[in-house]
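Title: Prediction job returns without error message
Component: structure pipeline
Severity: low
Priority: P3
Assignee: unassigned

Description:
Job completed but the reporter wants confirmation the result is attached to the right record. Sequence as submitted:
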Amino acid sequence: MTLMSSAINIVRECDLDAKVALAKNTAKAWHHRRLSRGTLTNLHLPATPGRPDKPELLLPRAMPRRTTAGLKGRIALLHSLAHIELSAIDMTWDLIARSGAYDLPNSYYDDWVRVGVEEAKHFELLCRRLEALGSHYGDLPAHDGLWQTSHDTGHDLIARMAIVPLVLEARGLDVGPAMLEKMKSHGDTDSARILEIIYNDEKRHVAFGLKWFNFLCARKNIEPMPTFHHLVRKYFRGPLKPPFNDKARSQAGLTPGFYKPLASITG
């Protein structure tokens, strides 16, 4: 086993408990330097991640309106977040596998393996919380728009870095505080604690994204900010929606010049 082959196995795995366990074991082996990097060609990567029979996957426009009231509202929100974190597991390990086609330092993989295991931790925490509330991941429908957005940039590592951590995860920094307050207002401190963990981890994920986006741009001798603007206009479907959490974004190193000029784009 190598880091590359393990990453592919994580993306392919349909059993979600096994997917989480594989992510944890791979991260532990990599960080303890018991796992070699290996090599990869993109032809070995699955086109879609492994999934169980549930939840039912719908087109984004076919998703039913989510309730926001009471226990059902909190369960719906946590279920939606669990699906986002599951997608994040697959997107991160897919990124790691695709990166094997490039000449990158071990510190690059150290960062993204950490992200990959933290996404697995987030998914596991949310699933346990759903079960504590009398529900399960898979009880509600979901959509795979995040994976599709990620898949569209599979051929271009700089584009993937721009779209996934610097747009999708950065969006989590914008909406995270309101979700936290919602849980606290209902007295659901256990759910709020999980959302706080995710929020704080996401700051680091965005910071890693910016760090390696800048690294890849420097390697190609291109300017990061205009390159980011070009890639978002090309690959991201829909506008970057304000209001932005400028404080959290700046803590991750993402300054307004990156994202505010894109706030009015329509895709």
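Comment from assignee: result matches the submitted record. The radius of gyration is 18 Å.
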